[in-house]
Amino acid sequence: MHSISSKCLDYQKSLLIEFKDTLEFDHSYSTKLMSWREDMNFVFGAASHIAPVACSKCSSLQRWNLANKNGINGMILVAFGKLAGLTYLNLFYRGFTGQVPIEISSLLTFLKLGMNDLQVPVPKPIFQLSGLESLLRFGDMFNGALELNDILCPPKNLKTLDLSNNFLSINTSETSKTTDSCFPNYGNDSKTTCLLQGVEVSDIGNNQFNDTFPCKLKSLSKLRILVRRRLTMKSPPCTSWRCVLLFAFMSTSMGIHSVSGLCLDDQKSLLVDLRNTLEFNRSTSTKLVTWNSSTDCCLWGGVTCHSSSGQVIGLDLSGEGLSGPIDKSSSLFKMQSLQSLNLAYNRYIDGTIPSRIGTLSGLTYLNLSRTGFAGQVPIGISHLVRLHILDISQPFFWPGTFSLCMKSPNLATLVQNMTNLRELHVDGIDLSANGKRWFEPLLSSLSHLRVLSMSICNITTEFPRSLAKLYSLSVIRLDNNDLPGTVPESLASLKNLETLTLRNSRLIGTFPEEILQMPTLSTLDLSDNGELQGMLPDFVQNASLQTLLLNSTKFSGPLPTSIGNLKKLQTVDLSYCSFRGVIPSSIVSLNQLEFLDLSSNLLFGPIPSFSSAKNMRKLHLSSNKLNGSITSTEWEGLSNLESLDLSNNSLTGSIPTSLFYLPSLKNMQMSKNKFSGQLNEFESMPSSMLDTVDLSSNNLEGPVPKSIFQLRGLVSLSLSGNKFNGTLQLHEILSPLKDLKYLFLSDNFLYIDTRVNPAAENSSFPQLWILRLASCNLGILPEFLRNQSELLDLDLSNNHIQGMVPKWIWAFSEGLFYLNLSCNNFVELERPISPAPALNILDLHSNNIQGELPSQMFEGRQYMDCSSNKFTSIDAGSDLSSAVFLSLARNDIHGSIPTSLCNATDLEVLDLEDNHFKGTIPHCLIAGTPNLHVLNAKRNNLSGLIPDKIGKICKFQTLNFNGNFLQGQIPRSIVHCKELKVIDFGNNQLNDTFPCELKRLSKLQVLILRSNKFSGSIDCPKQNSTWPSLQILDLASNHFSGDLKAQYFAKWSSMMAGMNESQTEPDHLQYRPTDEYGLYEDRVGVTFKGRNFELTKILRIFTSIDLSKNAFHGEIPVELVNLNALIVLNLSYNSLSGKIPSSLGNLQQLESLDLSCNTLNGNIPQELAKLYFLEYLNLSFNKLAGPIPIGTQLQSFSASSYEGNLGLYGPPLTTSSRSKHAPGLTLPTSLEESACSSTSEVEWMLRGAEIGFPVGLTIFIGPLLYIRRWRQWYCEQLDRIAIKIRHKEDRTSGRRRRRRRQKQIH
Hints:
single chain; alpha/beta; 35-stranded mixed sheet; seven-stranded parallel sheet; disordered N terminus
């Protein structure tokens, strides 16, 4: 206080000195305590250091100002209440915490508490201070509910009321609501007499009021300014002109609204100039079109004027359709009084953000979100140091594309002086240039930040663990960034945190349960973090959680019963997680729940009754293991339910027809369950809104109820994959359903009668988009299809349609995308062929279509399957450049492989199996098709070398050239194909050593090199790599030699029990192209149980090793015991010696064991009797001795399994068998036994042939070289013989192929 001319009393001075001594202050900055002036001070320390005793003695004190830059913190002292004469108290912009003392001077006329950290409910005694004229409590953290009368009936002298920027809500009790009605005769209502009767300015913006706004405010005669920004209150239909005028100004923009008569001429002139320079859409504008020069500019849409000066302080042009750049000379930048500027949602504004925007230094609110601004955020924004809210977030359309960025200046520079900032929205702005320490400037500059929204900002660093140091945060949005790392538990210390969204941010580790238990948290979104783990904790009563999104994470464990405590829950998405157990019955007590998605988890048990969830709109429980039946009573009362998805479970029983009567239900998904029985007719037509019904893939039977076709709002109906029977008249189905677009009736026992009245086709049938009639016993092509001009997808497969494929089928719908005519009896293609341009997918497989495949069939097709027909050739000029999946397998096509395939740069699958292609493999097919994953040319007449020009970028997964005449070596460049899973080069003429490079292919699962001319050891001492995924190895019928070493089999983990299981991959080897259309399934030939088999599907559980018919020697390695998932083991026809390892008895999965034609000795191990799955055993023609173990399944095999072992006896060998093999008898010399000759004998025979052949050749060739007449006669005879052989081979080959095809068909 200032003393007045030597009137300072001594005891007063004493009190002041005592008070000064209790304070900590900066002497170098202080201008008042040093001279005892009234205004600015720099005081430090906690409020408790201000001696309460000294304060209480200052009983005559009337004004106390501790505002602005003082460093006082702590609690507001109760001692302030003892200053009975205090009329002015200013504690603005301090670090005060806690609550306002209830004891406070009743004489106060001015109270300013804004910009502190007061986090408690507003004490009611403040509203009972009768002399209070100004109450300013903005920018704190006040919470709780206010009585409506506290706002509408403040102290009678109050002129200014500011409660903005808190966390306040309105108590909407019945008492309050009764004072909130909009009575026409408000002047006669005694309850309106207290309504802000003297208040001229009121600001309640930026709070949590969410009820209907009090319409009685229309009675206020003195209220000039009312601010309601950023609230969710509803405006009632007020009828009074004053009420309408008032609410016209209460927009969501920040600022103050003048009522009338305050517009200044210079301000109007600036606004008119601004409008004239702006380009905007007059048809959609709601604000600029109201700017009429003849009216008060303070009444113009989007304009806010100061209550007394008339200066324009707020400008809201959001959503006005502005376009073009904003020029730096714009009159906008001359409005120096602007406090609020909103240009949001004008996406056609272009250019950069004007740097002159930094001249509007008075701005406290700036919103440039969802505009078309691009480039660097200008340095000028950093000059707006008074900003409370900054929103420059931008829409994000494509990955890697950002319209705005913060590089120079960066984020740190832009915000370093914005110490008043409360909300920062920079979503969709590239912040990558800010580095890994992007978060530090927020900590140092924005200590009072409440809202941090930085979604899709290209941030690539670990999750900021210091985030919890921003103690005031209530909203955190960091979605769609790259924030690998764990979420810190310290976030749970943010006492005001309400919203935390971290969707798709690559989070890992375990999410802290403490955050889930925060009492203030209302929204949590962790979805699409595929490596984030966690469990749901026990939830406490009265938590605030309303939205919980954990979908597509690794959250697991049971759903806690305490989830029923979350009474405010409205949206829950836990889909695509790993939650287990039953759905707790407590979840049905959440009567506020509107959306519940528990799809794709591991939940089981019955579905609880949701009949009490009256607000439920969407209930999705698909792809679990739920069982039991559902009854009609479980769904009663769900009058708001719009979508029900119970598909892909194990639900049984019947489908209650009461579901069809739910009044709001639009989508019903019940497919892929075990529902059975008949679907009953409806007793009465439901007043249903159903547009989608999917009952496919169940066991429903009987006739299809006709009443289902009376659901006239149906857009999609799927009944496929059931046991419905009877006849359906197609015109009866389609005629009532005018909106039907999708119809699926495939795979039932139905007979679909497609005969219709031609005159009624166009008028009565809906225009379908998808029609699936597979396996519907169709005998002819439905004629009504000719008029289905909008059809996109047609499936008529697996019917009995015969004859010619008509030419109209290709073009009846220009948009036809998918056509499936497979598995019918078509024999010919009607010409000319002119497929619709949009036809991408064409399936003609398994018909009997003959002749040439015309070029028009290929043009534009991405997926084309013409396999299993009788096509004989391909038009040489065919354009195959669009092909992604092409199968011509099992036809009679001759000629070379078309080089035009090399133009198909998107080709992923090429299947040419079982044809007559000849010549060499085109080099460009190996090196020039970068996306080719599958190349199958099995069983053709290809010759020459396998091209050795495989590039470093190789995507092959399957290479199959089995059954050709290929020569030379395996190309060493194959090592570039890191994705290879199947290599089948069997039954060729390859002459090579074992290609050790193949061991570097870690994903290899099938390797077949049988029946070639490979030789040498299979040992690869320089290769440390193994085949962890190998499941089939076939090296049979070559010239491999050497010992079988233990390290060969050490790490073949796919042949070890428990090591080859995968929950994510399909159960057999296959490849599906990236566009999801088409499926290639690998097929190979194996020797199994003594016979040759063609595996049409290679199950991942099938494992086989076949090293037969080689020259391996040494003992059988004991380490084979580790391959305990092995099903087939064939080591026959080698020179293996020693005893049969007893450890082979541990191969519990073994079904076929062939060790025949070796030199094994000793007894048959008793342990082989433990092979309970063994179905084939061959130990013949070895040197085994002793009894065959008795009393085991070894006696179940025939005697041929043991023959050729001289010392072996016992059942099943008979007495004659034993005498036959008695010592001294010579071995049989049958063809079979001669095949078991030792390798050395075979080698000597080959060497003799090598010597004898050239000698004989010289004797025969000599006369032909020197006697011309002999030579001429010899050539004529040779030509005659060759012609006969060729004719005979052609006839034999044709018969053989026809027999093979017939076997495949049957």
